[in-house]
Automatic annotation (TrEMBL):
GO terms for biological process, alphabetical: UDP-alpha-D-glucose metabolic process
Protein name in the entry: UTP--glucose-1-phosphate uridylyltransferase
Source organism of the structure: Crinalium epipsammum PCC 9333
Top enzyme category: transferase
Pfam families per the UniProt record, alphabetical: NTP_transferase
Enzyme Commission number, as recorded: 2.7.7.9
Family: Belongs to the UDPGP type 2 family.
Reactions catalysed: alpha-D-glucose 1-phosphate + UTP + H(+) = UDP-alpha-D-glucose + diphosphate
Length: 293
C-alpha cells in the first residue's frame, strides 16, 4: 500500500464499441456527443477528463488503439486550423481551453485489443509505480455534492490508504451488466470492506453470494466506474498476460482486483452522485435526456 498523492488517471478508450455498431464504425464511442450542464455539446471523453481534473488529477493517460492516436491528439492538442476564425469568441476560448487540457494528457496505445485488463496494463510504465485513478471511457458522472464524484473517491483513498472502488446501488434485474461486490459495512451506506468482487452475476448467484447487510431485497452494490488502485494491480495483470490467463477470451480486470483485495484489502465507497453509461444504445439515449438535467 502507498500513501502517495494520486496525481495520475488512466482512461481506457481502445475498445471497438461493438454494442453501439454501426455508429462506432465511424465515431469512437468515447467521442459520442453529450450536452453538458452548461449547454455545450462535447465528446464524452472531454467530460471524463474534466471529472478527473476536478479531483486534482495532474496527468491523464488515455489508452487508445494505435490507429486512433492522431484522432485523440487532434482533439486535445491541435486548434481547428480552418474553422477557428469562424468560431464564436466563446468557442475560440474553449478551443484554447482544450489545448490547456491537452498539456496534461498523454496518449498511450494498446496495439492489440485484448480486453479491459490488457488496456489497463498498457499504462503500467506511464503510471510509474504510483497509485492511480482508473476511469471507464464510456461513463460520465454528476453530483450536487460539494465534491465531484472523482474527488469523493480520492478523499476516501486518503482516509483509508488502500485501493478504493466506487459503488452504486442497482436493482437485481440489471446487475448482469455490471461488476458487483459484497462486504462488511465500515460506515453504514457509505464505506465497506470488500470481501468479494464478481463480474456480471446472474440474479440467483447475487442473491446467494452478493447480499449486503441492511440493503433492500434484490438491491446490490455495483461498480460506479471510478477506481483508485495501487500499482500492485499491474503485477497480477502481467502474470495473467504472461501466462495467457483469459476470461471470456480476454484479459480482464476483475479477477486481478480480487487478488489485490486478498493481498492488500480494498475499500468500497457508495458515491454521492450519479453515473451515466453511454456504452449501450438505450443507456446512451437516456444519458442524452438526463445528463444535463
Amino acid at each position: 500500500m502507498s500513501n502517495h498523492k494520486v496525481s495520475k488517471a488512466v482512461i481506457p478508450a481502445a475498445g471497438f464499441g461493438t454494442r453501439l455498431f454501426p455508429a462506432t464504425k465511424v465515431v469512437k464511442k468515447e467521442l459520442f456527443p453529450i450536452i453538458d450542464r452548461d449547454g455545450r455539446a462535447k465528446p464524452v471523453i472531454i467530460s471524463i477528463v474534466e471529472e478527473a481534473i476536478s479531483a486534482g488529477i495532474e496527468e491523464i493517460g488515455i489508452v487508445v488503439q494505435k490507429c486512433d492516436r492522431t484522432l485523440f491528439e487532434d482533439l486535445f492538442k491541435s486548434p481547428p486550423p480552418q474553422l477557428f476564425n469562424k468560431l464564436s469568441p466563446q468557442n475560440q476560448e474553449y478551443s484554447q481551453y482544450l489545448q490547456q487540457l491537452g498539456s496534461k494528457i498523454t496518449i498511450l496505445t494498446q496495439d492489440i485489443q485484448d480486453g479491459f485488463g490488457h488496456a489497463v496494463f498498457c499504462a503500467k510504465d506511464w503510471v510509474n509505480n504510483q497509485p492511480f485513478m482508473l476511469m471507464l471511457g464510456d461513463h460520465v458522472y454528476l453530483t450536487d455534492a460539494d465534491n465531484s464524484c472523482a474527488r469523493q473517491v480520492i478523499k476516501v483513498y486518503e482516509q483509508v490508504n488502500q485501493s478504493v472502488i466506487s459503488l452504486d446501488v442497482l436493482p437485481g434485474e440489471i446487475i448482469h451488466k455490471a461488476g458487483c461486490i459484497t462486504g462488511n459495512w465500515i460506515e453504514s451506506n457509505s464505506l465497506l470492506s470488500i470481501t468479494k468482487i464478481f463480474e456480471k452475476p446472474d440474479l440467483e448467484y447475487a442473491r446467494k453470494h452478493l447480499r449486503v447487510a441492511g440493503m433492500a431485497e434484490d438491491q446490490f452494490l455495483c461498480v460506479f466506474g471510478i477506481y483508485i488502485l495501487t500499482p500492485k494491480i499491474f503485477e497480477y495483470l502481467e502474470e495473467h498476460i504472461s501466462n495467457n490467463i483469459r476470461e471470456r477470451g480476454e484479459f480482464q480486470l476483475t479477477s486481478c482486483l480480487d487478488r489485490l483485495r486478498q493481498d492488500e484489502g480494498i475499500t468500497g465507497y457508495v458515491v454521492k452522485g450519479r453515473t451515466f453509461d453511454i456504452g449501450l444504445p438505450e443507456a446512451y439515449r437516456q444519458t442524452m435526456i438526463d445528463f444535463r438535467l
